[in-house]
Amino acid sequence: MTQLTQSSSWQALIANASNLPHMRDLFAQNPQRFEQMSLSACGLFLDYSKNRADNTTLKQLFALAKDAKLADTIAAMFNGDIINTTEQRAVLHTALRSKAGQDIRVDGVNIIPEVQQTLEKMTKFVASVQQGQWLGYTGKNITDIVSIGIGGSFLGPKIVSQALRPYWKAGITCHFVANVDASSICEKLKLLNAETTLFVMSSKSFSTQETLTNTMSAKAWFLDQGATQADIAKHFVAVTSNVTKATEFGMDADNIFPMWDWVGGRYSLWSAIGLPIALLIGMDNFRLLLDGAHQMDEHFKAAPLEQNMPVIMALMSVLYTNFHGAQSHVVLTYDHYLRGLPAYFQQLDMESNGKSVTLNGTQVDYSTGPVIWGGEGTNGQHAYHQLLHQGTALIPADFIMPLQSHNPLGEHHAQLASNCFGQTQALMQGRTFEEAMAELAQSSASDADKALIAKHKVMLGNKPSNTLLMDKLTPQTLGSLIALYEHRTLVQGAIWQINSFDQWGVELGKQLGNDVLDRIGAKEQATELDSSSNALINLFRQGKL
After folding, report:
1. Which tens digit of pLDDT belongs to each residue from 295-338?
2. Cα Rg for the chain, rounded, in angstroms?
3. Within a 10 A sphere around the Cβ of 102, how many other Cβ atoms?
4. pTM of full prediction above 0.90
5. Residues 6 or more apart in contact with residue 461 via CB below 8 angstroms
6. What is the per-residue pLDDT across 202-215, written as a single tens digit (0 to 9) for each?
7. Is 413 designated active site?
């Protein structure tokens, strides 16, 4: 057993989990349960009362956090200490949304001035594009942005841009390309005019295989449309740390925006990686996005554990993952603009906490990193909610909804809210056999048939959920929401004693993929790998079955 599973707080939680009454009873026993298990912070409201927890459970969870020295990990991150120990890096995405004048050091150097300089550079560039001062090679305004990246350089900017669609500036549209499948970029290029298109390439090394391949194809298309090598500087910019490769490509050094090792890709949208977002919503709104995240940073750093929103949400996830056998967690967004958020949180959580050894290299003997999935309400109610209600798996859920719609239309938003709140209620209370029989009382079916149908209508309930509300989806509230889940991820990793900031599984896939690519391009048949890989490579080279 590891030190974590031997701790008194861990053992107490095992005992508590098996002795808790049904949530129906917890609500009946405590009329103040909602007031006691909800809180507001940074424009967000969290109702966590529909969880399998009582006061004793909460005390034990907070004790577990203290045993794991969570407060020390939080302080270490904000101080710029090396908490990504396998790569010997600080973890300072929080510095990207810090205020000017702060002093946050990496290797003895205050990084805030450089962060602020990059924001100012972004401000000037965005203004020049939006105000029509930056012109294409034939003198026309830029109307389309193509963001080329992958992983965190793609998903964060895409989903935040999608979420903030009501704030887009008129006259500019953005297209996102990540997949190395040629169909992805070809379908985008069919929609574009080279004279009015700006490409933003995001790659720290300027050599990420998928991103570089897509960028080279974009360059070839651009030149095929009649542009020259000299025109590239007006239509391609980069977010990278490799200035040499970017300038060799044809980009103007003044249009290259920096990246830093102390920012992981999945935490990077707050940096110049967010340039596509800024080009769509303007720098004023981009700074509000940063401000919302900064407010959550300050809350996370200062609030007691018992009143700390990211800590509470993380501990609830730990509760179900480690003490109730849950293997997945669903995120349900009751807002059309937030429909992509589950995929973003999926990457954030699963790439961070999909680990099986502790910081000191010990194999874990407990579950980490549940599968994160989800979708848009109310669509999911007519698909996978059936499994949530009556399936055998326990799947904790997060419901996210703004109280006000950007598009108020008749009763649409009231119906949306009624579905959201009704689902959380149904998951919690379920339906007993007696209640199902009562519903069938007026049926003409026989008593035996009624009893049979009632058994099919029974739902055990006691299915946990959190409900997150905001007044309205704005750049600021979105910033707070994303930072909330970032910090939730850190807390989980700290409890599980794992490194949430490396991704060696991703790196292995890249390494082996490059090796396979070399073998595909070789003259001789593949023979040196396993029989399956050899056969698949050779089939691909044949081009037919």
Report:
1. 999 999 999 999 999 999 999 999 999 999 999 999 999 999 99
2. 26
3. 12
4. yes
5. 22, 23, 24, 426, 427, 428, 429, 430, 431
6. 998 888 899 999 99
7. no
- Using CB atoms within 10 A of its CB, is residue 209 exposed (0-12), middle (13-18) or buried (19+)? middle
Give the position of tokens 């909330």. 484
For the question of residue 510 being annotated catalytic, the response is yes
Q: Which two tokens stand for residue 223?
A: 């030149």
Task: Report the amino acid identity of residue 157.
Answer: P
Residue length, the chain?
Answer: 545
Report DSSP letters for 80-130, one per residue.
Answer: T-EEETTTTEE--GGGGGSPTT---EETTEE-HHHHHHHHHHHHHHHHHHH
Among the options 382, 456, 523, 544, which is catalytic? Answer: 382
What the block records as the tokens of 519 is 């073998």
d(CA 244, CA 150): 21
The kind and range of the H/E element at 44 are strand 44-47
Report residue 445 CA to chain centroid gap.
49
Q: How far apart are CA 258 and CA 273, in angstroms?
A: 9
Read off the pLDDT band of 507 (50, 70, 90).
confident
Residues 292 and 117 sit within 8 Å (Cβ to Cβ): no
Cα–Cα dist 204/520, whole Å: 27
Q: Is residue 333 within 8 Å of residue 377, measured between CB atoms? A: yes
Cα 450 to Cα 9, 390, 426, 461, distances in angstroms: 47, 19, 22, 21
Q: What are phi and psi of 338, to 5 degrees?
A: -95, 15
Catalytic residue chosen out of the listed positions 294, 351, 355, 487: 351
Quote the crossing angle between the two packed helices 283-302 and 475-496, to the nearest 10°. 40
* Helices 309-323 + 475-496 axis angle, to 10: 50
Instruction: Of 496, 474, 157, give the one whose Cα is nearest residue 318.
Output: 496
Task: Determine the angle formed by the axes of helices 475-496 and 55-67, rounding to 10 degrees.
Answer: 70
The two tokens of residue 118 are 């990059």
Sequence-ordered list of residues with C-beta below 8 angstroms from that of 330, at least 6 positions apart, any chain: 342, 372, 373, 374, 384, 388, 395, 396, 397, 398
Tell me, what DSSP letter sits at residue 372?
E
Burial class (CB in 10 A: 0-12, 13-18, 19+), 278: buried
Q: How many helices (H) and strands (E) does the chain have?
A: 22, 15
pLDDT of residue 106: 93
Backbone torsions φ then ψ of 457, nearest 5 degrees = -95, -5
Residue whose token pair is 């970017």: 246
From 66, 124, 412, 510, the catalytic residue: 510
Q: Which three-class secondary structure state does DSSP give residue 207?
A: coil
Q: Check: CB of residue 206 under 8 Å from CB of residue 240.
A: yes
Listing DSSP states for 334-352 in one string gives -SGGGTTHHHHHHHHHHHH
User: Is 412 a catalytic site residue?
Assistant: no
